[in-house]
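Most newcomers find our protein records easier to grasp once they have seen one. Sequence and backbone structure share a record, each on its own labelled line. Nothing more is needed to start thinking about how sequence determines fold. As an example, a complete record with its sequence and its structure tokens follows.
=====
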Amino acid sequence: MHPSSVVPARSQMRLDHDLLKQLSRRAPGRLLLQTLLEWLCIAVLIATAIHAGHIAVSLLCMLLIATRQHALLILMHEYAHYQFSRRHAWLNDMLGDALAALPFFLTVHGFRRNHMPHHRHVKTGADSNWVSALEVARYQFPKTRAQTYAEMFKHVLGWYTLKELSHYAFDAGMSVNLPPAARRFRSVYALVVLALIACFDLWWTVLLYWIIPLATFLMGILYVRDVSEHFGMPSEGIAGARTMLSNRMGRLFICPYGINFHAEHHLYPSVPFHHLKSLHAALQKDDYYRRHAVITHGYLTGLVAQLAQARGEQKRPAPGAAAIHAASSCS
């Protein structure tokens, strides 16, 4: 089994222990508040689209709803790392499921089960996300700028949506083989949500302003972000991951909640989202980090340029593995 590059990289850097302890402090109230604020934003966008009654406004609201859906998935990732509570894991997972996972047909438990090996064995034969993604043409680089933009557009059109949802839910195991408590909670949750939709006759609203943004704009956002994290890098980089620097528009549409500091997250996964920028600033003072980190500016500019110049990535099979599950998000 090929070792991950995380531990060797971390051993070469000097990050103050007290600072790391401070940055790793959980803020469960903030995580819950941010999750609820995302739902409030989605509700306001839906109300705006309905009130305006104009197709251009509706399309803009659908796009913005997709950005907030993406933000919820990033917050689900925080719950998967027990950033709400490790001591009360049942409450952590219940809140994560209700507010950030089940609306996407996923579960925190299933996502965590798939995600933790990615952290332990990033970009090795034991990282099923990585190995299986390399079998898929849209994750194979280099690609010309035109080819990369075309793949982004195909995701926005929903070209891969059913396949991706199937991979996340079933192949990557994010919705199957769950503990009994998680299955029971999911069943109750589904019954309550369906009852509310039926009671208030929200079928058309849910289709227009939840399912369609999820199946189109969200798929495009996820593809861009997934590619930016590990693919087409000019060098191995720190912990096999890329750090993306972006402007306000990029942070709104593609990388809210510090998800662009992905190398930093792989190095120190205990650090919650709101401290990742501070962690990045601290690491920039380290000589090893400055020499080896892959720091890219702009998702539609610097990233696309690197993807066009990327060296081909070779799959490294896990010894004894008969098959690898299909790709899931490499976040």
